[in-house]
Amino acid sequence: MHEALGKARKDLEDQEGRHAEEKKNLEEELSKLQSVMTPAESEPDSVRGLTTRAALVERIQRLGEGVFKAAQYSWENALVQMEADEEEEDEQEEEDNGEEGHGESDG
C-alpha cells in the first residue's frame, strides 16, 4: 500500500512538472501572439481591430474599390469638362465667324 501511495505521489509530481512546463510554453506562445498583434505606431485606427488576414484583405479590397470609383468619377468628370470646353470653343468660333461676315458686308 505504501508503494502504491509513493507511486501515486511520484506520478502527481511528474504531472505537476509537466503541467508547469506546458503552462510556461503556453504563456510564451501567448506573449508572442500578443506582440504580433500589437498595432504599429503608424497603423490607422480603421485597421486596428482587424485580427485575421481575411479581414485585412477585405478592407484592402474595399479601399481599392473606393479609389477606383474616385478615379473613374474624376475621369468621367474630365471628359465632360473637355466636351463642354469644345462646345464653348465651337460657339466662340461661330460668333467670331458671324462677326467677320457682318464686317465685310458693311464695307
Task: Provide tags for this entry.
107 residues; mainly alpha; 3 helices; 88% helix; rod-shaped
Question: In a few lines, what is going on in this structure?
Answer:
The chain is mainly α and 107 residues long. 88% of the residues lie in helices and 0% in strands.
- Strand fraction: under 5%
Sketch the topology as an H/E string, one letter per element.
HHH
Count up the helices: 3
Determine the structural class based on helices, strands and strand pairing.
mainly alpha
**Whole-angstrom Rg:** 39 Å
Strand tally: 0
Averaged pLDDT = 84
How many structural domains can be distinguished in the coordinates?
A: 2
Gap between N and C termini, in Å?
138 Å
- Poorly predicted residue ranges: none
Helical content band: over 70%
| Largest sheet geometry | none
Shape: rod-shaped
Biased composition (Basic and acidic residues): 1-31
Biased composition (Acidic residues): 83-98
Region (Disordered): 1-50, 81-107
Description of the structure:
By secondary structure, the chain is mainly α. The protein has three helices and no strands. The longest helix is centred in the C-terminal third of the chain and has 54 residues, at 53-106. It is rod-shaped and about 125 Å long.
